[in-house]
């Protein structure tokens, strides 16, 4: 049994993304509609996800494009306001992801009571956002300083829109990440949000670290969820839950319900 059962309530967990609209300081923030609009759109998506039956939710500033690797204070402040206003509506375990800043993700988790964070904690990358460096030792020390030691750390080891500077295979990365950093989970991604995770890569990672939770981090859809969940311990799902399966759209509760029905059927067969 993994920690997923204790924290989220089930194995083969589905963590649904609640993508926040652009926030103050973001290039595409709508000043006329303001933060009230951001909050209400987040509430709309949250309710559709929960009513559709997801196991957990992760709030992220997905529309803060183009992303920063050192996020500004106004972003995390705005995210804290959104989650604070939604607190009475949140009925499932939740996590947070401040793209792409590991320490601020932990700050937000500590402030809101989030159970987990997903981030790029390790590695050095050539990315669309420039040279992308990390400092996992300082990040984990920060986690303990702020009283967030019980927050689960989901390490994305295949960052979107980025590539390791060193020539290392994925099994080597998985093994050394686990040995050096004791992550709670490894997330395996496709190129961008909504892009399918390569099942062969997913299997290589799971085989390399069989005792660690491995999550399919992008691109799990109705037509591949059984294949992906037969390998991974769970999945992070965002785009597949949206109207017409398009990243920029809002959550479609009907799509969520259909997806989760298939997940529950898969789980029941897996148990047998």
Automatic annotation (TrEMBL):
It holds the Pfam family BtpA. InterPro entries: BtpA (IPR005137), RibuloseP-bd_barrel (IPR011060). It comes from the Bacteria. Belongs to the BtpA family. This is Membrane complex biogenesis protein, BtpA family. The lineage of its organism: Bacteria, Bacillati, Bacillota, Bacilli, Bacillales.
């Amino acid at each position: 049994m993994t920690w997923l059962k204790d924290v989220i309530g089930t194995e083969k967990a589905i963590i649904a993304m609640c993508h926040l609209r652009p926030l103050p300081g973001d290039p595409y923030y709508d000043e006329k509609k303001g933060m009230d609009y951001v909050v209400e759109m987040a509430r709309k998506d949250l309710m559709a996800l929960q009513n559709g039956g997801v196991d957990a939710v992760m709030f992220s500033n997905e529309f803060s494009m183009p992303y920063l690797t050192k996020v500004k204070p106004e972003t995390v402040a705005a995210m804290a306001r959104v989650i604070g206003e939604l607190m009475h509506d949140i009925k499932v375990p939740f996590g947070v992801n401040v793209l792409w800043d590991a320490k601020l993700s932990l700050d937000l988790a500590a402030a809101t009571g989030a159970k987990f964070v997903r981030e790029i904690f390790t590695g050095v990358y050539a990315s669309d956002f420039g040279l992308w460096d990390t400092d996992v030792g300082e990040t984990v020390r920060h986690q303990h300083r702020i009283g967030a030691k019980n927050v689960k750390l989901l390490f994305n080891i295949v960052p979107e829109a980025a590539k390791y500077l060193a020539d290392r295979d994925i099994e080597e990365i998985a093994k050394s990440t686990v040995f050096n950093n004791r992550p709670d989970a490894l997330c395996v991604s496709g190129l961008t949000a909504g892009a399918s995770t390569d099942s062969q890569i997913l299997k290589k990672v799971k085989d390399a670290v069989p005792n660690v939770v491995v999550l399919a981090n992008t691109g799990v859809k109705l037509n591949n969820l059984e294949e992906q969940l037969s390998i991974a311990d769970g999945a992070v799902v965002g785009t597949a839950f949206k109207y017409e399966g398009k990243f920029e759209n809002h959550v479609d509760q009907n799509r969520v319900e259909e997806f989760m029905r298939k997940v529950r059927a898969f789980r029941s067969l897996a148990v047998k």
